[in-house]
# Entry
Amino acid sequence: MARTEDHLHPNETQRIEAFSDGVFAIAITLLIIEIGVPHVSGNESLASALGDLWPSYGAYVLSFVMIGIYWVNHHSLFRLFVRTDHYFLMLNVFFLMAIAFLPFPTAVLGEYLDNAQQRDAAVRLYSFGLLLPAFGWIVVWLYANARGLVDERLAPEYVRFLTVQYLLSNLLYGTALLLSFLDPWIALVIVVGLTLLYLLPPRRPRYDA
# Structure
């Protein structure tokens, strides 16, 4: 009998997607929970208090869209894998940990974006929070390629395109993090621009004839 690698598990990507969907759902729900109901007293207006939460609304929308984009692309990406192994699963867990972390920097950004003294630290944390899942994503992809977990029928130029795209995303998120130490607003422009860019549908897979 031919020897096989016992840590390879063909056709188990559906289980990974099901678990991942649960983490995405929880993370995206926690975003709105982090926006607390304002408490008014005296002559303070509820409408004014609600308006003061605008940074929280903006951070919520940005992070909700970002997590939603990751969920859509996660589904598309996993259609390219034909098998998994133990380390692949653990790397996906790391990626999901980064996704589950996002509600925290989102809440901090919403709380301190309009605070001139604390804004810089809040934007740095948020930029770092967005870099983490991008890093987890490229690690999953590079490992899958190195271990032969990707569908071998994919055209090499398509695989290279995805690799460059994911590396470029990490570079831009890393740039945003570095720029957050100089100008937090420029860092936010970069991450918002990336979010808008990824609203576009991903390129359809290409296979060799």
